[in-house]
Specification:
Blueprint lengths: L3 H15 L3 E9 L7 E3 L2 E2 L7 E3 L7 E3 L6 E4 L12 E3 L1 E8 L3 E9 L6 E8 L8 E6 L8 E5 L15 E2 L14 E4 L7 H6 L3 E8 L2 E8 L5 H4 L4 E3 L8 E4 L5 H4 L3 E9 L1 H4 L2 H7 L4 H6 L10 E12 L18 H15 L9
Length: 357
């Protein structure tokens, strides 16, 4: 006669193990309230040496487009900037920080590009480099492909990734290696950045911040999965296909190198990346500051984010904001804990068959 309790325990474990990781929406930045829960940097760029001043709230550089109801973040493209001065632009960071066990999905119709322009959609722990950084979207000047990267303290590397991109630039994430290049993966799609991104009506960036690893997906507008385009309240990562970039736990223990992250949009000008002569001259002519920042303001007509929404999801709907989680990473263990409990319960009944799981 089969042991009923054993069969129940086996069934629970089988169901848990067969299921993909499902995340439920816990936060939405969209519509008229998009900018309500962000902090403005409100200072000059003293972080990456950009020729930029990040404006405070209330500026006309951030607003909701009345026609589309989408959020616009832009570089000043109307003012004449005097020599030795900097051009106004935007940097905002989410008030909430999100723990391991989160996904954030950014739906964008346009991203900034142009000579001297250095935009990014990324996340960072407040005590960087402790706690790490995840760059989901970044580019400079007139490059045609998005680059993604992690930046951490020493010891985190990309090892045996499962990803669609074969364009792996660097594998050591240590911020002290190669002038803080990080471990960089480039998206081979020319629709992932710049003019072709805009021509395709943009797309969606998905970032999974999980104990098993960090993954990034990019979907051009025509290929956005229905679970995302329908603004579903849940996301199952098994339905997203292969990520374009992946940093598995095997080379970088996520709980060791990462803590809760603030989400960040910013657009700086020139600076340590876009303004470096060897990089600037790959796609642009002239001199970054004198020919562009203080040049014709119309150079910045394409230097703006047009964002429909940012949605944040947590495993099993658990709120993963730093302010409400009891400890970093605690939520992401819930699914494993439920499996373990079922295994132990069955084992207590003499379920030696479970050892095969």
């Amino acid at each position: 006669m089969p042991n009923l309790a054993l069969l129940v325990a086996l069934s629970v474990v089988a169901c848990e193990l067969a299921a993909g990781t499902t995340y439920e929406m816990i936060k939405e930045y969209a519509g008229s309230g998009f900018f309500d829960d962000w902090d403005y940097y409100d200072n000059y760029d003293n972080l990456t040496n950009g020729d930029a001043i990040f404006v405070g709230s209330g500026s006309d550089l951030t607003y909701i487009d009345s026609t589309t109801n989408r959020a616009i973040m832009k570089v000043d493209n109307t003012s004449t900037v005097a020599y030795n001065y900097k051009r106004d632009t935007v940097r905002i960071a989410s008030k909430d920080r999100y723990e391991v066990g989160s996904i954030w999905i950014a739906d964008m119709y346009h991203v900034p590009y142009g000579c001297s322009v250095w935009p990014a959609w990324w996340s960072q722990a407040p005590d960087w480099p402790t706690g790490g950084e995840i760059d989901t979207f970044e580019g400079v000047n007139l490059v045609t492909m998005n680059q993604m990267a992690l930046h951490t303290e020493s010891g985190c590397k990309q090892v045996d990734p499962v990803q669609s991109s074969t364009l792996i630039n660097t594998t050591d994430c240590d911020y002290e290696v190669d002038d803080n290049d990080g471990c960089v993966v480039t998206d081979p799609s020319t629709a992932s950045y710049g003019a072709k991104f805009a021509a395709a009506e943009g797309g969606v960036f998905v970032t999974e911040f999980a104990e098993t690893g960090i993954s990034i997906w990019f979907f051009s507008r025509s290929s956005v999965p229905s679970s995302i385009s329908s603004n579903s309240s849940t996301i199952d990562t098994d339905n997203l296909g292969t990520p374009v970039a992946n940093w598995p736990k095997g080379g970088c223990d996520i709980d060791t190198y990462f803590t809760a992250q603030n989400l960040i949009f910013d657009i700086t000008l020139c600076g340590d990346f876009a303004g470096t002569a060897s990089i600037f001259n790959e796609t642009c002519t002239g001199t970054c500051y004198t020919d562009y920042v203080i040049g014709n303001a119309s150079y910045y007509d394409t230097a703006y984010f047009d964002v429909a929404s940012v949605r944040v999801y947590g495993v099993n709907g658990t709120d993963t904001t730093a302010s409400s989680s009891s400890s970093s990473g605690a939520m992401s263990n819930n699914l494993w804990d439920s499996r373990t409990a079922a295994v132990l319960a069955a084992a207590a009944l003499g379920a030696t068959a479970l050892l095969a799981i």
